[in-house]
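Entry for the shared binder. Reason: the reviewer on the internal report wants the predicted structure included alongside the sequence.
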Amino acid sequence: MQEKERIIIPDESGEEHLFDVLFTFDVDHTERSYLVAVPAEQAEEEEVEVFAFRFEEKEDDPDDLTLYQIETDEEWEMVEEMLATFTESDDESN
């Protein structure tokens, strides 16, 4: 079994939360990268709350990411499309 990639994301009050990265993807025509993650402490049976962000890697440290909120409907539609594809392929592999 492949080890999950995890990231820590602080909330508005500065409290840090651990997330499991479901997948990342790049959009060639915009040269932007996105990641989709779920809270690590979420129980398997619970309804999953999914978070998506645009991200940039720091040039001097690729493990250090800067996250940005997704702000446009076009970006959300793209993320939802990728999530649907990911979910379908995940269902097929189980």
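Summary line for the report: The helical segments are 73-93.
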